[in-house]
Amino acid sequence: MEAQSGDSTVASGNRKCSAVTGSARKIKDNAADWHNLIIRWEKLNDEGFSVASRVVNHRLNHVQGEQQMLVDDPPPPRMDGAPAQRRQLEAECSKLLEVVDKMAAIISKMERLLASQKGLLDLEEFQFGPEGRKVPLFHSWMTPQFVEVSHQLFDAYSQELRLKQTILQELAHTVTSDLCMVYLSCWLYQPYIHHQMRLTLEALLLETGHRLL
Amino acid sequence: MCAKPAALTSLQQVLRKSFQSLEKNQKVWNSVLAECSPLMVSLGNVAEQLRALSNVQLSNTPLSVFPDLQERLHFKLIQAADTVLEKLNEKMSSLQSVRDSISNQVSRAFQLYEQNTDSLDLLTCTQRSSTSPSVADMLEWLQDAERHYRQQFLRRKTLLQTLRADNLSLLESASKRWESLESPSEEENITDVLFKVSFFMESQ
């Protein structure tokens, strides 16, 4: 059933993507989902950077305070500020944990998108044999390409999540300001999300008709 | 009570135009410079991050498990620096327009003066009234202003041209060196001049 409806919307030359059904519909929806998930990720990234910066500030102030206490002789009376400072630091760390948890949830959704893509490819191979469809569903991409793109995006963002989880664990315990700054840079600049990824996403949106050619 | 020579009238008109142009361009110059400040701050931030990265041996940290992290982060930071430098270059184009506009206007005034030195004797040129500074003074002020903007542009452009995203020490010192190029006394002089010629600009 699905094969017929999927194929009936595909004509050579001018394809009307607005009339997609079946596999094409699913792939188009997946593309929109990828786009939305990535936008949400970027927002969380910005939010997380603000929080992480505050964690570093608290941390470095605390470290400086401790070092000052070691230097001073006799040491000054314990400031009332210290427990309040610790509570603030803990609060910021909790916020950062929340951000990372939300990002992990996004990765889970990305994993489901990838699985869905693979499922559609399997279905196609079942219907059309190992060579798959002869004619592209949209403009020019064959179905394995959608899987490949999903893989690239998923791999990049998963790696980025692992990096952020490490930063989350280490940030509040790091003593040297240089390393703190490197953690912050890693968070902000997302070394594993190459510029190429954005182009890949754009290409996906173009192919599936979300962006006009 | 002799009639004003035609040459003097035309020269005064051109001078008026020159000061109007100077007034407008001063505002443009200052606003473009103000836009450069946050860009220089960004450049400094990126430089700080590059320095921190070069000071850290990632293999001795929990980040050692991440493949190619040093290179990837370095690349992103260099890219960020390049982006800022590009934006600064765009600002330089705006400053260049200001410089060119002032230079052109001032040279027109001087050209007109030189063409008419026969009818513009020393007395005429040094005569001033309550509403009008002397032609000599006005020409001098315009010349000073033109030189100021010309030099400022040259110094700032030269500074930016030395900056490379991968030359860390130059990036780190860029903000300070940029600020040191400021010349508040010259800027004040120009504002003073515009004040002095305000009556003159209003009169016909």
Approximate strand percentage of chain A: under 5%
Q: Residue-averaged pLDDT of chain A, rounded?
A: 86
Give the terminus-to-terminus CA distance of chain B: 19 Å
Low-confidence parts of chain B: none
Helix content of chain A: over 70%
Main β-sheet of chain A: number of strands, strand sense, barrel status?
none
Q: How many strand segments of chain A? A: 0
Compute the separation of the termini of chain A in Å. Answer: 31 Å
The whole-angstrom Rg of chain A is 24 Å
- Tell me the Rg of chain B in angstroms: 25 Å
Q: Would you give an account of this structure?
A:
The complex is a heterodimer of chains A (213) and B (204). Chain A is mostly helical. Chain A is 75% helix and 0% strand. Chain A has helices at 2-8, 23-71, 81-128, 143-171, 177-189, 195-207. In chain A, helix 2 packs antiparallel against helix 3, helix 3 packs antiparallel against helix 4 (143-171) and helix 4 (143-171) packs antiparallel against helix 6. With 204 residues, chain B is an all-alpha fold. Chain B has helices at 6-55, 69-115, 122-126, 135-162, 168-180, 184-196, 198-202. In chain B, helix 1 runs antiparallel to helix 2 (69-115) and helix 4 (135-162) packs antiparallel against helix 5 (168-180). Chain B is rod-shaped, with a radius of gyration of 25 Å. Chain A binds chain B through residues 159, 162-163, 166, 169-170, 176-179, 181-182, 184-186, 189-192, 194-195, and chain B through 48-49, 51-53, 55-56, 58, 61-63, 65-66, 69, 72-73, 75-77, 79-80.
